[in-house]
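Limitations

Structures in this collection are predictions, not experimental determinations, and the ligand pose is part of the prediction. Treat each record accordingly. The example that follows, with nicotinamide-adenine-dinucleotide as the small molecule, is included so readers can see exactly what is and is not provided: the inputs are given verbatim, and the output is the predicted complex.
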Amino acid sequence: MRQVVLVGAGAMGRAWMDTVARRPDLRVGAVVDLSVASAQQAARERGWDVPCVATVEQALATGDRPDLLLNVTVPDAHRAVSEAALRAGVPVLSEKPVTPRVADALALAAISEQCGTLLATSQSRRHSPGLRAFRDAVAAYGGAAQLDAAFFQNPRFGGFRDEMESPLLVDMAIHTFDQARFVLGSEPESVFCDEFSPPWSWYRGGAAAHAVFRFEDGARFGYSGSWCADGLTTSWNGAWRASAAGGSVDWDGETSVRAQDGDGPVRMRQPADEPEGLDAALAEFLDALEGGPAPSGEIRSNIWSLAMVEAAVASARSGAPARFDEVFAQAAAACVESARTAGDDATADLVASWGGAPPR
Ligand SMILES: NC(=O)c1ccc[n+]([C@@H]2O[C@H](COP(=O)([O-])OP(=O)(O)OC[C@H]3O[C@@H](n4cnc5c(N)ncnc54)[C@H](O)[C@@H]3O)[C@@H](O)[C@H]2O)c1
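Predicted complex:
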């Protein structure tokens, strides 16, 4: 039985509590939230008699060392919460984004390496049977040279997303970008992104964008998205199409995966019946703790999905393409400077030795 500390008892934290509760091999040892009342209520609703505290430090100071920590706080709190756990030797599975900035993600990658403690991000939409069937069909045709995803939704969230400068790119697009890395099995090299605000948009910031990424293997990934598109909305996974040497494949973002080679018959690919979303992300993480392979959201890999967001935003602001080596170099310089200022020479030295993205 592994003991879990769950930090962040908001909407997603509660979804994680229910995910943990479905596992017979996990037990929640403490719930942490700045609002202790929220933590207590969430625990009470589940019939859990566990300590509820306000800070991760309090949770780590009481009782035995937990086996893992789930970081489901707001993005701006991710770095501090994950860092405290890693420094205490507690592996962390964090909600996306691992941090809002690549510079902070580099610091976390370095701290994870120094402490020898696993840090991974849960990119729940990567764990979709439909996406896996799509990727496998694309691979069977020789791999995509041209990949496109269309994401059109119209949520009326209210709250912080309505006020953000780049709500679509910063809060949502990381899912689609991460899925593209999964399908292509390659890393991005450069991006040109045009972000804008349709006249009828109800967001303050740019809620629509077109972006073209160039990947290291030469593939192009085109993204078109909007969060203010009334009518004919796509799946929250987007609608996908890939062109490969052997044929083309599309995916409606749910369960329909179609493949056609030349003028041959259209073949339906049946997604496997397997765990998805949070359950799959957690299973993969626990498997790694048992000595299995690194989870697909391990920080040194997942940082590329975060960099896709940062590079797209940089391109949208400058009006010019952004190169990933430059995005990483700037982030590394900022990380080294702030680590030195904080007196953390070990982190500064390690990130300086990378000079950019962590070694793969
Ligand atoms: N994978 C997905 O599909 C998906 C969907 C929604 C949200 N998310 C992510 O989940 C995370 C949480 O989102 P949410 O919608 O639950 O937010 P929320 O605002 O509902 O809840 C966040 C909770 O964290 C608490 N908190 C903030 N700072 C804290 C700190 N330092 N220590 C302890 N508690 C702290 C807040 O009090 C709040 O209760 C975000 O990173 C978000 O991007 C992911």
